[in-house]
Write a structure and sequence with these properties.
By secondary structure, the protein is mainly α. The chain is about 65% helix and about 5% strand. It contains 5 helices and 2 strands; from the N terminus they run ααββααα. A two-stranded antiparallel ribbon has the order 1-2. Helix 4 packs antiparallel against helix 5. The longest helix is centred in the last third of the chain and has 37 residues. It is elongated. The termini are far apart. The model has no long low-confidence stretch (mean pLDDT about 90).
Length: about 120
């Protein structure tokens, strides 16, 4: 698949795809006879996974580490798993913080809704 098709199917811009190739997050694409990039459709699965890592806040340096380990093959599965488990731990901690903050917002909003007497609320 050409880069235009990959752009449409992945949701990434051509600039981002080229950047990811340049830094080693995506493998370099094969080239056709005209020297145009020619991607295998399997790259879509890898891109989708990278996007999930990005959404969960994994730093690009860790994504690059994971990609490098992935290129080395099955011998690195333990290290890749450990990297993902550490990231999962950070994501869960962040989610707990977000849930706590959301509960505080809900409480504050409920206080305004219940404010029939016209009392003022401080933000403590």
């Amino acid at each position: 698949m050409k880069i235009g098709e990959l752009v449409k199917r992945s949701g990434l811009s051509a600039h981002t795809i080229r950047y990811y190739e340049r830094i080693g997050l995506l493998p370099y694409a094969d080239r056709d006879r005209s020297s145009h990039r020619d991607y295998d459709t399997s790259i879509l699965v890898w891109i989708a996974f990278l996007e999930r890592l990005k959404v969960t806040g994994m730093p690009i340096s860790e994504m690059l580490r994971y990609a490098a380990l992935r290129q080395l093959g099955p011998a690195t599965e333990g290290e890749r798993r450990a990297l993902l488990e550490a990231h999962r731990h950070r994501v869960r901690a962040h989610l707990a913080n977000l849930q706590s903050a959301l509960a505080a917002l809900d409480t504050k909003i409920a206080g305004y809704s219940d404010d029939i007497a016209g009392t003022t609320h401080n933000d403590t």
